[in-house]
Specification:
Blueprint lengths: L1 E5 L7 H15 L3 E7 L3 H5 L5 E5 L8 H13 L3 E4 L5 H11 L4 E5 L7 H7 L5 E4 L2 H9 L7 E3 L16 H8 L6 E6 L8 H14 L3 E6 L5 H10 L6 E5 L4 H4 L5 E4 L8 H8 L4 E4 L14 E4 L4 H12 L2 H18 L2 H15 L4
Organism: Rubrivivax gelatinosus (Rhodocyclus gelatinosus)
GO molecular function: transferase activity
InterPro entries: Glyco_trans_1, Glyco_trans_4-like_N, Glycosyltransferase_grp1
Length: 362
Amino acid sequence: MKILHVEAGMHLYGGALQVVFLQRGLAAEGVENLLAAPTGSAIAEASAAHARVVTMAMGGDADLGMLGRLRRLIRSERPDVVHLHSRRGSDLWGGLAGRLEGVPVVLSRRVDNPEPRAWVGLKYRLYDRVITISQGIFRVLEAEGVPASKLRCVPSSVDVEMYRPGRGERAWLDAEFGLASDELAVGMAAQFIARKGHRTLLAALPAVLAAQPRTRFLIFGQGPLREAIENEARAAGFGDRVLFPGFRKDLARVLPALDLMVHPAEMEGLGVALLQAAACGLPIVAGRAGGIPEIVLPGVNGELIEPGDHAALAQHLVALLADAGLRARYGATGREHVVSRFSVAAMVRGNLAVYRELVPSR
């Protein structure tokens, strides 16, 4: 079986990492992977060991030329399935290219934000199957009119060997980020975009720092709102209590050395950073949005807040920061939950089952 994967993202964020994991697992099952990715993208380099990579210009929804480029690739390679992994034009032009060339098309939907219902009715006709990475996204699409018979839920995965307790060293973390040995470290790893809830965290910080002044917040990531959020943190007088280390490629070392993970998102497909944190044995306080409740179980491995509820966020953070035993119990349970439900092997099996529905002879 040959699968053409189309990923239009330039950076190796959560969704693109899932594509790399999937290609690696499929290759081990004897599947031939072909990846179409943007020229100069991180995923093109990361996928080279598991797929034959074709790079091309991918200019988004307005890039009509992408349709022709993908059609020519499909025509020359004749894949059994075209699997579209992102938006940015690849969902539209990739879907049309597959349809026009007579190849089954699968779309992975990784976000839970609704689309205009009329647009959904047109666009989703292009796809033979739509894989949602959470039940939350499944429900959003079903409510918008996508037939349930076309939808399949295959949760995203985390490499539980790479992300595990014990890989991080607290002494290293302290030296790397200038923390004192008696300080607690809370992390957040997300793109700086409005729906991730950075401002909810900033609103909660005065109460948290009043109760737990020996706490430092490490907010990882990059994005269009980063400068604004940094300026707001500075204007609020948080000083060095809140650090902005940027995008890090070594989260597998950073996360296990933290005490707590926070993610007050207002919309979230699932949350790969949360899977990574839970796999590292971190308790989590997060927003009750999208697929997050499938990872964070209140009173079991973390706590949930209603989106935007900074008072509840502060309350849960203070309680967990004050109780090392509770943090340890939540962290251990979270690790067990992720290992049992969100393994790479399960994600690969789920995607492969969808392909076999469309190409049963293979």
